[in-house]
Every structure is written in C-alpha cells, then in structure tokens.
Specification:
The complex is a heterotrimer of chains A (318), B (608) and C (255). With 318 residues, chain A is of the alpha/beta class. Chain A has helices at residues 40-47, 69-75, 91-101, 106-119, 135-147, 165-179, 191-197, 215-220, 232-240, 271-280, 295-308, and strands at 2-11, 14-24, 29-33, 55-60, 63-64, 76-79, 153-157, 183-188, 200-205, 208-214, 222-229, 245-254, 257-264, 284-292. In chain A, the strands form 3 sheets. Chain A has a 6-stranded mixed beta sheet with strand order 6-7-8-3-9-10, sandwiched between helices. In chain B, the strands form 6 sheets. Chain B has a 7-stranded mixed beta sheet with strand order 9-8-10-11-21-20-17, covered by helices on one side. In chain B, helix 3 runs parallel beside helix 5 (107-139). Chain C is mainly alpha-helical and 255 residues long. Chain C has one domain (3-252). In chain C, 81% of the residues lie in helices and 1% in strands. Chain C has 13 helices and 1 strand. Chain C is globular, with a radius of gyration of 20 Å. Classes of the chains: A alpha/beta (318), B alpha/beta (608), C mainly alpha (255). Strand 1 (144-145) of chain B pairs antiparallel with strand 1 (226-227) of chain C, so a sheet runs across the interface.
C-alpha cells in the first residue's frame, strides 16, 4: 500500500525528515508515533502530495507521490492536523463540495454523504454550520470528509488531538471499525492511543525511524542492555553476528565505553551468549541487563537516543 | 576611456550585461548557491557536484538563449532569431529528457528540470502573448468606433490625403484664454489623434496653452510664423506643412468648427443637432498644402453687392464666407470690372445680389472670362438680376418671375424664408456629401432650364445652347409655390407655379464621353440673394457647406468636395424636477432594498 | 485541467463572499457612490440643456470621470481579492484543497473567475440607473459607448482581479495582500496619469506611452466609444501572466 524509501525533506538548512524507509501493507493500521517536531506531519504531507519530498521515493498503491500526484490523491483520504474547515459552510454542503472535488459520481454522492454522516455520528448534525461546531464534531466532519470517496488509504494526522476522553474513545472506536476496510496511517504522540488502535507502530524521532515493529512484539519485547569497553564498531559487529539477534542499537559511545541495546527474536534471553562473545574477544564487560520495556519506556528512550545519535547512519530497517 | 564608455553605453552591451546578470541569478536559484560557492550537499546516490552544476548551467543558458532569440527576432528579424531559439529550446528539451530520471535522488537536478519545464511553459505563453500583442498593435491601431454617429471615424477622403503627405504636418492646438471654444476642445483633440493615427510618422501633434508661462516662448514662435493666430482669442488649430519659408501654414479658429446644424429645419422633440466640421476644415487645408497653390475668388463689386469686409454676423455682408474661404486657403478679393477685365489669376468669379445693372463693357469682360473656360457662381433672385439674363441664358438657365412662398418649410414662420426639405437621393455632387441637410433660401425665385418647360401658345421655341447641360440640384417642398402677385400670400392655381421649384442649378459643358473625360463645370446659380450673407449663414450653417461645395465643384475637383460634418444629435434631457427625483431615487431604493433584503434573508436562513 | 472541478470551486468561492458581510458592505458603498454620481449626472444634463453641445458622453461624467468611483474601486477590489488565496493559506484549508485530485490551475482559475464575477456584481449599482434614464427619463443616449465601456471595464476587471489574486497567493496575511494590490492599482490608475501630466508639461517623448498605460485615459477612451484593441490585448496579456505566476506560486508552496 505505502512504499517509502529514503524519503527526506529539507526546509532550507533544516532537515525535517531524514531518509525514512518503511512500508505498510494493505489493511494495516499503523501508528505514526513521535514527539512534536519529529517529522510526522511532514512525512504525512509528503505522502498526501501536499509537500514534495526533497529526495527519496514514496508511492501509494504503486503511484509515485512526485510523478502521479493526482492518482495518489484519488487513493488517499486525508485528515490534516487541526482539521481546517470553511467556517461559513454547513456540514452537508461541505461534504457535498468535497465529494464533487473528489470526483464522487453525482448518482452516488447523496448516498456517500449519508453513509459517512451515519458512520461518523453526524446524522443529526448535517445542517449545522461548521464554524459553530465543537472540536470533537469538527474532527468527525474531517473524518467524514476523508472517507467520502471511499479511499484505499486513510492518513489521519492526530485525529484525537484536543478531544475530551469520551470523544477520544468514540473516535478510536471509529478508527478501529474503519480499519477493517481501509488501510490507516495515523499519527499521534499518545502511546496509549497506539496501543489501543494500531497493529503496528512506527516511532519517529528527529526525522528518523527509531522503532518499527508490531505492537504485540514491542509490548512483550525484552531488550538486553549491555555496556563494554572496546571499539564500538567491532563490538557491534560481534554482537550482531550472534544467532537470533534482531537488532543492535548503539545507545552511547564515549571514552572507549559503548552501550548497546540488543533486541532478540521472540524475546529470547541471550545474555550469556553475548557476554561470552565480548569476553572472548578481550573486551571488558561493564554492565549487562535484561530490560522489559513498556511502549512508553521505549518511546522515551528512543527519543532520547535519537537526539544523541543525530550524526550516525540508520542502524536498520523494518 | 570615452570609447569604452561608448561601448558600454551601446544597446548590445546593455543587453549582454542583462543576459549575464540574468544567467547568474537563475543559476543561483537553480543550483542553490551562487557561482563560486559550493553547492549544497546531496544524497550519496546523486550525481557528482560538477555534473549537477553543468546541468543547471545548460538549463539556464537555454532560457537565456530563448529570451535572446525573442530580442533578436524583434530587433533584427525572424531569420536571425532561429539559431538562438533552436539552440535554446534544444537545451531546454535536453534538460527535461536527460535529467528527469534523477528527480528522486537529487533535489538540485529536480529543480533544474522544473526550471526547464517552467521556462518552456513561460516562453510559450509569452510567445503567444507577444504574437497576440503584435497583431493587436499592427492591426488594432485604430480603435473600433462604437458611437452611433461615427464620431471617431475619419472619412476615406481624409485618410487618403494623410497617406499622401510628403513633408511633416505639424498640428498645434493653441488653447486660448477665451473659454468659449472649450466645449469643443476634447473633440478637436480626438480629431487630432485620429489624424495622427493615419500617418504617425508624418504628423506631429502639439498642444500649447496661452495661459501657461512655460510655453510662452513656443507660443511667440508660432505666433510669429502665423500672424493670423493673434486674431483668434479662443482655441485654434495651427496647421504647418513642412518647415521654414516654404511651409504651408493655416490657422483654423476652433470656434468656427462647432455649429448648430439646421436650426431652421423642424427637429424632433428634445433633440438638438450640432455639426462639427473640424475634419472638413483640416482635410481641405491639408489638400491645399499638398497642391501648394491658393485659389483666388473674385467677388464683383460696384452694383450694390454686399461687402466682403463686413464680418459682423448680424449684418448683411459676405465676411463669413470670405473667412471660410480663407481658412480653406482661398483668397476672396473684390473685382472691379469698370476699368479692366477679370485678372488672369482669378479662378472663380462670384456675383452676389447685384442691385444695379452691369454695364455692357462689364458684361463683355465677364463673357470673355467665361469664354476662357473658367467658372462662375451667381447668387441672386429674379428681382435683382443686374442684366445677367443673357449670361445665364448662355448656360440654358433662366429665372422665372415671382418669389417662392412655403407655408410649411420655412424659418421663423415667414413664408418667404423658405427652407429646402432634406434630399433623400442626392443627384448632384454639390449635394452628395451634405446628406440630409436643409438650406435656408430667403426671398428666392424659381429657376428653370431653358427649353424644358412645355411651350405656351404663341411662344417660339427658345434658343438652347447645345454645348451646355443645365441640371437642377436643389428644390423646394411640394407645398411651396411661386407667388407672382405682389403682397399676396395665396396660391392661385393656373397663375402661380406649384412646387417643388428649383432654387439651385448647375451648368456644365457637354463633352463627348470618350477617354472618360468628365463634363467641365461652368456655372452654379442659387436663387436667393440672401443665402450667402452673414445673417443667413449664422442661422443656417448648412448654407456655408452648400456654398463651399459649389466652389469646390466648380474648381473641378469632385473628390475634394467638403467632407460631411459630423452631426451629433445631442439628446436633450427634458425631465422635470419631480421626474428627476424619481429617476435617481427609485433605482436607489430598489437596489438598496434588494441588497439589504438579500443579506437579511441569507442571514436568517444561515442562522444555526 | 477540467471544467467539472471549476464549477464547485467557483461556487464555493462566490458563496463565501455572500455568506459574509463584506460583499454587502461593498455593494452598499458602491450604491451610495453610484447614487451621488447619477444625481450629479442628472444635474449636469439639466444644466446643459441650455448649451449647444449637450453632453457628448454622459458615461464619462457618470463613471470613469468620477474620482470617488476610482478611489472606491481601488479600495474595494483589493478588499475582495485579498482573501482569495491568502485566507486558505492562513486557515490551512489550502492543505485540504491541494490533497484532492484537482490541479493548482483549477484552483487559481476558479478563484479568479469568482473574483471577476464579484467585480461585475460590484459595478451593477452603476448600471441599474441607466435603463431608468433611457426609458423613464426618455433620454435616448448613444448605446455604443456604453457597450465599449462595458467591454473595457470587463477587460480591466480581468486584469485587476488577476493582480489581486497574485498578491493574495504570495502571503497568508490578507492585509499585506490588500496593501500590495492597492499600491499596484494606485500605480496603474493615478501614478500613470500623474506621470502623463508631467511628461506632457515637459514635452517628453514618453508622454504618449504614459497616456497609453494610464488606466484613466484608457477608460475615458472606452467611455466615449473608442474600443482600442491594443489596450484589450495589453490587459489580457498582463492578466494571463499574472495567472501563470499565481499558479506557479501555489505550486512552489509545495516544494
């Protein structure tokens, strides 16, 4: 559904998104997680063709965002951050207007509008004026609008921002429901939301992907944290060469002492194997931990790491 | 040093400088850094910096070459521009086709390709607009005239004259202190512009204001060259054809150009026609400049004829006609035939209202003059023939007795102040250009062609000059009649001749219609002694056109017959105050009610 | 570019004018000016009954020769065009507009058309009096100059709205767009006229060029019944270039 390779965006001298590479399969609900300013919105804008990437490729259903922008737009329903709406229009007028722009055939327009109004709980609000709607209803109108042409892919930028807890629950339920029919990429900086809604999470920090994994795996994952004295590169290679090691991330490297985080396949405990490898090579082991991480922990750690490792190349791909 | 400055100051150098600076600016834009600085770093998959810089340089060069091609095409001609156009577009197309594949890896190459695509679209659009503009400026130079009375269209006559100009024609509009001519000032300006458009390289238009101290020197100059200018206090158009002593010069007072048209004729309710004869005046003057000679018109004197020097419009003189002749380049002089014959330089003799008879010797002089093939105008009636019957009979023209009365077509409700009805189908060139105008003929007598009337009993067949054709061209209305009884204002059937009666007649020489020779005009007779006088001309300016057309026709130039004046029917606004109030209040109220009502309705409907 | 998108875009744009108070205020203001000018025209017509010339071109006194009209136009037109794109930039709705399958060209053209229609509506208060004058007042003025003036004002409107649209696309601040547009109109309307007067007084060669460029002169010529195709083609060219640039500016916003 979504194929992204080396996608980068530069505003003047600021690199907002750095060589993102990921892909999303049909029917997935993917949470795009990251702190404010991490590049989530920029990435989503590139995927919806609102912005053009500086370099790299992104394609949706096989259509390149740069070369076939109009094709991409036909496939995508987009809910921008803060849901910009025309305040003077009525709900139904707005949906009808957007349906015309999105080439919903005249014969199907009415039923499509009725369907999304029903779906988003707006059935009794179709005569309301957009400028007078509360935040939650604006969000629903935005969602209804993004659904109006029955897109393959929904890109939702912070769909629950600013909603009260009951509205948040309603919107999440709605997204889960929609997930059966559409591929959904939603951004948020709330961990629980990802855990509640998504099947997979892509954590993005400082313009790079820090974590890209299925949500159950992250929840159950054990990570081994290891500190040793020795050359960082050589030690990392040695660790990576161990069987069942999925990914090795350098957390810190200073004064000849490096800290690594090692993720193993299926959360296997490899502490002894790894310790053996280091010691065998003559590197001094300083610390060895098994850490059971919650998503929140991982998030905070990844963000902290990202700000430290700004200059290092990506350690791996999904 | 000076030669370098000269070189720098040349247009080509400036264009070159402009091209170089444009190149540097666009190069900076496309490459992301000015020349001399290193380009911003790009992903490792991107081609090398040198490759990218070359691509940018060629794309920018392509645009510069296309722009240069446009300049060359305008400055040197289209063939020369083909090379820069070809190379420029080749570079642009090469950029688009060659570097498009790098668009995902190199931002600067993508920018380069986008620049080339934008250049392509921009130059195509600009080229299209350039062509549209060239067409508009080439063929749209004359604005389309949307006015009903074609106020902004010059006659083909004028436009033909302007094409024939060999020297520069300077038209100077001198704005006088007297504001009386002000209302026609705009029309004069517009007229001058119309002339200018006909031949922009040969016509110079200038405007001088008498009240502007900055232009005092210019004004002095022009006054020295054209002493007539002193006489006109209002606006005047000074025409100067060429420069120096050989230049043709003429001053046309603007106040003469705008006149009431046909006040004597009945006009529809609320309409007031004005005639603007500026085009006629200017074109005729220019025609005279081109021909380069002056016509001398001799007015006979010594038989109680009205004075040529009487210019007061309330007096019975010929001054107005004289000044009109002068403004068209003809000189009107008194002609005394007592001592000697008609001087050779006189090309037209005019006899107006001789109250006393010509002597035998004078008639001999006139006959000799006519025998030389030159033309004559006679303006009088049956009561004041001055012994000219023989002269007229030679041209198959005779005055019938009586004075023409008309109960309907007259001026000021005086039956002898007859007005000719408009002619629907003009049959004679004297009338042709004057359209449907009416002319005032006070105390006129009917004219007839000798030999045309059915013979009465006891009459012998009159002698007809076979070499002359006399043709009537102006008639009175069918309601008129020729009153033979003194003091009577009743039509007596059988005695008085019934209208339409002829009041204008022209005689010309019969020539065999071989070699396309035209009949030579000889004589024009108007059968009212008053019709050429100041008083009449003031009341009916159309008479002036009639006289001038007769002069032109006799001079043998049918093509230079007076241009019909632009008659503008000013609609009079006759609404009374209450209607006026309604006129501006009703639409305002309707509109405001509509606007406010629509707004309020919309507000109520949209209120949630 | 396809026509089927133009209509909904155009309709929304036009509706948004009338769903706010701005259009009505502008219309009422123009109605006021038109009322005053028409009243003035009636007075002049009545006064001129006595003089010979009459009014050769009543429309010149009524519309194009009226200073209040031009000042109002210079203020009202930027006020109408300023929001066309900058409002979308400010509120972020541009993002929703450029992520549906329509092109930048469609967006720009439809907004321009809406602006042009609004401009025509704005001139309606002036036209409403003329049928009354002709029929009720029995003042049978020449229709020709009215037609040429209408064509001229339309072509002027196409150009002015395109200029306003261009400045609106450059910024997200409506006031900034309005000020730039106003300054440009001021240049076109009054500065060219002033430069023409100066050049004429100094007998400069470029007086003719200034006379040609001066909008007041152009409209004066239209109002007396002279339709100069060169002026139309210049208006059309500036309009086309402005629309091209506006589309480019909207496209560049994506980069």
């Amino acid at each position: 559904m979504i194929e992204v390779a080396d996608l980068s965006k530069q505003y003047g001298t600021i690199q907002a998104v750095k060589k993102l590479t990921f892909h999303v399969d049909r029917g997935e609900i993917v949470g795009f997680l990251g702190p404010n300013g991490a590049g989530k919105t920029t990435t989503m804008r590139m995927l919806t063709t609102y912005l053009t990437p500086t370099s790299g490729r992104a394609s949706i259903s096989g259509h390149d965002v740069l070369d076939e922008a109009l094709e991409v737009r036909k496939k995508v329903g987009y809910l921008p951050e803060n849901v910009p709406l025309y305040p003077e229009m009525r709900v139904r007028e707005y949906l009808s207007y957007r349906a015309q722009l999105k080439d919903v055939p005249r014969s199907k327009r009415r039923s499509a509008i009725d369907y999304v109004l029903e779906r988003c709980g707006l059935a009794d609000f179709d005569r309301r004026i957009l400028g007078q709607l509360s935040k939650g209803y604006r969000q629903r109108v935005g969602l209804a609008e993004s659904l109006i042409h029955d897109p393959d892919l929904l890109i939702l930028d912070e769909p629950t921002a600013g909603l009260d807890p009951i509205q948040v629950r309603e919107v999440r339920a709605l997204i889960r429901e929609l997930g059966g029919k559409h591929t959904i990429l939603l951004s948020t900086h709330i961990m629980t939301e990802v855990e509640a809604v998504c099947g997979r999470v892509i954590l993005i920090a400082a313009g790079r992907i820090a974590i890209d994994d299925r949500i159950e795996r992250i929840q159950t994952e054990n990570a081994i944290v290891l500190q040793a004295r020795g050359p960082e590169n050589a030690m990392k290679k040695a660790l990576e060469s161990a069987p069942k090691v999925r990914r090795v991330t350098t957390l810190n490297d200073s004064g000849g002492v490096a800290t690594f985080e090692i993720q193993t396949e299926d959360g296997v405990d490899l502490r002894e194997e790894l310790a053996h490898r280091l010691v065998h090579n003559g590197w001094a082991l300083r610390q060895l931990d098994l850490r059971r991480s919650s998503l929140e922990e991982r998030f905070v750690r990844a963000v902290a790491d990202a700000s430290v490792r700004v200059d290092q190349p990506e350690s791996g791909a999904a | 040093m000076t030669s370098i400055l000269e070189l720098v100051g040349r247009t080509e150098m400036m264009i070159l400088g402009l091209a170089v600076s444009l190149f540097l600016a666009f190069y900076w834009l496309v490459r992301g850094a000015p020349i001399g600085q290193s380009a911003p770093a790009e992903p490792s998959e991107a081609p090398s910096t040198g490759f990218r810089d070359r691509a940018a340089a060629f794309a920018v060069l392509g645009l510069i070459l296309v722009l240069a091609g446009a300049y060359v095409a305008v400055a040197y001609g289209i063939p020369w521009s083909l090379l820069p156009f070809g190379v420029g577009y080749a570079l642009i197309f090469r950029t688009i086709s060659k570097y498009s594949s790098y668009r995902h890896v190199s931002p600067s190459l993508r920018r380069t390709v986008e620049f080339a695509q934008t250049s392509l679209r921009f130059t195509l659009l600009a080229g299209l607009l350039l062509i549209v503009n060239i067409f508009a400026f080439k063929y749209g130079g004359n604005p389309i005239d949307f006015t009903h009375d074609e106020a902004f269209t010059l006659s083909t006559l004028s436009s033909g004259r302007m094409q024939k100009l060999e020297r520069t024609l300077h038209m100077t509009l001198v704005l006088g202190r007297d504001e009386s001519a002000r209302r026609s000032r705009d029309r004069v300006r517009q007229l001058a512009d119309l002339y200018k458009r006909e031949n922009p390289s040969k016509i110079e238009i200038k405007e001088l204001a008498a009240f502007n101290p900055n232009q005092a020197a210019d004004l002095d100059d022009i006054m020295k060259r054209n002493p007539d200018l002193m006489m006109s206090r209002g606006d005047a158009v000074v025409l100067e054809y060429g420069e120096g002593a050989s230049a043709g010069r003429s001053v046309i007072p603007v106040v003469d150009l705008l006149q009431l048209a046909t006040p004597g004729a009945p006009t529809a309710e609320g309409r007031l026609a004005t005639a603007f004869r500026g085009e006629d005046a200017i074109t005729s003057t220019v025609a005279r400049f081109i021909e380069g000679k002056r016509t001398i018109v001799g007015f006979t004197s010594g038989h109680g004829e009205p004075s040529l020097d009487q210019v007061d419009p309330r007096e019975m003189g010929l001054g107005l006609w004289k000044s009109r002749l002068a403004s068209l380049g003809a000189v009107a002089t008194d002609l005394n035939l007592v001592k000697e014959g008609v001087p050779a330089e006189v090309s037209l003799v005019v006899i107006v209202w001789p109250k006393a008879a010509f002597s035998e010797s004078e008639l001999e002089h006139l006959k000799k003059y006519l025998a030389s093939g030159k033309p004559m105008i006679v303006v009088t009636n049956a009561q004041n023939l001055g012994g000219l019957q023989g002269l007229l009979a030679m041209h198959n023209i005779t005055f019938d007795a009586g004075r023409i009365l008309d109960p309907e077509w007259n001026a000021a409700r005086q039956m002898d102040q007859i007005v000719t009805p408009p002619i629907t189908i003009p049959e004679h060139p004297i009338i042709a250009a004057l359209g449907k105008q009416s002319f005032l003929f006070p105390v006129a007598s009917p004219l007839s062609v000798i030999g045309s009337a059915p013979l009465r009993q006891g009459e012998s067949k009159p002698q007809v000059n076979p070499a002359i054709i006399a043709a009537p061209f102006l008639r009175t209305s069918p309601r008129s009649w020729s009153e033979t009884k003194e003091g009577s204002y009743q039509f007596d059937a059988g005695v008085d001749a019934k209208g339409p009666l002829v009041v204008g007649m022209a005689a010309m020489e019969r020539v065999e219609a071989i070699n396309g020779a035209k009949p030579k005009p000889r004589l024009v007779v108007f059968s009212s002694p008053y019709m050429a006088l100041n008083t009449t001309l003031r009341n009916d300016p159309a008479n002036m056109d009639l006289l001038m057309n007769a002069v032109e026709w006799l001079k043998g130039k049918e093509e230079s017959l007076g241009v019909a004046p632009k008659v503008h029917t000013a609609v009079l606004f006759t609404a009374d105050p209450s209607l006026r109030t309604k006129l501006h209040l009703v639409p305002t109220i309707i509109s405001v009610v509509l606007i406010v009502g629509f707004g309020v309705l919309l507000y109520l409907a949209r209120r949630a | 570019m396809s026509v089927r998108h133009l209509f909904p875009l155009f309709r929304r744009e036009l509706a948004s004018y009338f769903l706010g108070p701005m259009a009505f205020l502008v219309l009422l203001a123009f109605q006021g000016i038109a009322w005053f000018n028409f009243w003035d025209l009636l007075e002049r017509l009545d006064r001129n009954r006595a003089t010979v010339s009459g009014l050769r071109d009543p429309l010149n006194f009524y519309l194009s020769g009226s200073v209040p009209f031009w000042i109002a136009l210079m203020i009202a037109l930027p006020a109408l065009t300023m929001r066309l794109i900058s409002e979308e930039n400010r509120s972020g709705t541009i993002e929703t507009l450029l992520t549906v399958p329509i092109t930048e060209g469609e967006v720009v053209i439809s907004k321009w058309l809406a602006g042009v229609v609004m401009y025509i509506v704005m001139l309606m208060p002036f036209i409403i009096y003329l049928p009354f004058l002709y029929v009720q007042g029995k003042f049978h003025f020449d229709i020709g100059p009215f037609i040429s003036l209408s064509i001229g004002m339309l072509s002027l409107g196409l150009m002015f709205v395109a200029i306003g649209l261009f400045f609106s696309s450059l910024t997200r601040n409506q006031i900034v767009a309005a000020i730039w547009t106003f300054l440009t109109f001021f240049l076109f309307i009054f500065l060219t006229e002033a430069a023409y007067g100066y050049a004429l007084a100094k007998q400069e060669r470029w007086a003719e060029l200034m006379q040609f460029l001066s909008v007041l002169n152009q409209v004066h010529a239209f109002a007396i019944g002279q339709l100069d195709l060169r002026i139309l083609s210049v208006h059309f060219s500036i309009c086309a270039l402005m629309l091209f640039l506006t589309i480019k500016v909207v496209e560049w916003r994506r980069a």
